[in-house]
Each structure stands twice: as structure tokens, then as C-alpha cells.
Known about the structure:
By secondary structure, the chain is of the alpha/beta class. The protein folds into 2 domains: 24-144 and 298-313, Rossmann fold; 146-296, Aspartate/ornithine carbamoyltransferase (Rossmann fold, 3-Layer(aba) Sandwich), CATH 3.40.50.
Amino acid sequence: MNGTSSSATRWTRRNVLDLEGWSREEILLLLEQARHMDDLLSRPIKKVPALRGKLAVNLFFENSTRTRVSFELAEKMLSADVVNWSAAGSSTSKGETLRDTAWTLEAMGADIVVIRHGAVGAAAYLTRKLKKAVVLNAGDGAHAHPTQGLLDLYTAWKHLGDLEGRKIVILGDVEHSRVARSDARGFAALGCEVVFCGPRTLIPLEVEALGGRFEPDARKAVEGADLVYMLRIQRERQQDGLFPSVDEYHRFWGGTEELMKLARPGALAMHPGPINRGVEIASEIADGEQSVILEQVRSGVAVRMALLYLCAGGAVDA
């Protein structure tokens, strides 16, 4: 597999809350560890005892299928004991605070807490309340989704090799996307050119702080791109009047065959899922040779296994 690793780098992170401030060396160390976990997924017996005796709690205050199942698989493949905690069926639906939930988890002996929450900073709050457990952010508001960002980096790295100087286009609703923010920071840390594109009403003002630049014209943005990342469009944005119609959105910013022809030959088409066919992406692209959408799902398990191992199982030198 292509890609280079840094030497003399040691893993020092206990919690994973965001990709802001991550160094190139840290990311490459994680990608190398994910490669080892990816190899494990191809074996007849996929389970290893790295987290045997550890208790992992998946604490999801928002609905999720891909991320929650991916974390659960990763935890079980590393032999952790797993508890899935749904806010809808827990005491939080009766008014229990996040602080009290944290103390309950501590009393239960949780070693790892994976949290998805609609409030920005919820994962960081848990790190201040939990004395023992490792905290992994599975998405907090529109702030960050670091494991999605890392799995996207890993998928791109496997196909493109060294990402230094590669052009990455993030297309769509960046304003409301935690995925876009984490991806932009991760790709920028690896030396990529990051270009945001979409309706101006869906692009935040702080694009430069995220490590990218804004180009409103999708054709200009995608020209020469190595990777086109199409963000999911939430239909309520159209109801809010942020763009006239889904048909117009697809015509100007949708990932179509015509648009992808402007990218480099062999450019990757990515999407965080679930996809809206005919809105942010055409079926011909979603199901075509350039699409690595299903591979992103597999990468998610490998990357989350790597993070769980590094943060809760034991640091390694690269």
C-alpha cells in the first residue's frame, strides 16, 4: 500500500475530541495503525485481545447507524465488553443531566466512552467529568466528527498515497457539517489544498481558519481535483430557504458525471452517507468506479479500532 509514515513519533493522545491541532506525524501514525487493523479485518478470525477486560460504552444522544455500529464492531473485534446506551431509553429522557450520566458511567467502571451529542463541546465536557475513562467524540453538534475525518483520510491515503499537494474539494453544506470541518483540518494538516464549494448560504465565514478557500463555481472548484467529497444535503435546509430547490442544487453543485470529468483521471468520489441520490450525488457516480463510499465504511471500522487501541490499549512507536 502507498503512503509514508513518520519516524520517532509516539502516541500521546488520551482522548479524541477534534482534529484541530493534530500534526502530520500524528495522523500518519494513526493511518499506519489503521492499516494493521485493516489487515486484521481480512483474516478468517478477526478478533484480538487488545482490549480484553475493558468496558466500552457507546453513548448516543443522536440517531446513528453507521457510526454507532462501526464503533461497536471495532470494540468487539478488540475484545472489549460493550454497552450501547441510547438516550431515548435512558434516564436522560427523564431529565438526567449529562453530568449525572457521566458519574453513573464512572461508577459502572467504564474504561471507554464514545459519545455523540447535539451540543457542541459535549465530548470535551465528559473529559472534565470522567477521571478514568477515555473519551472519543462521535460527533458534537456542527463542531467536529474526528473519526469520520480520519477514516476519510485513511481511505484517500490508501488510494492516492502521499497526500501532500493533493487537491481536495468539499462540496455542499459546509456550514452545518461537522464532517466537513474535521475533514478540512485533517487534509490540510497533511499538506493538501482544500477547496470548499456550494451555495454561499451554506458556506461558513471561517473557511480560512479551517485550512481551505472558497470557490462558488463547482466547475472551477473541481477542475484538477484528486478527490471530490460530496456532503449530504439535509432537505430542511431547502425549506429554510438556504437554496431555491434540490433540483437547482443538483444542477449547480451536484456530483454528476459531467462534473467529475473535470477532475483528474481516477479522482476519488466520497460521501459520508447516507446519500441522497439525485441531490448531492448522481447514482452514476455513487455506484461508479470512482466511488469509494462503501470502502469508507470498512475504513471506519479499521480507523476506530486503531484509535481504541492507541488511546485505551497501549501506545506504540512508529
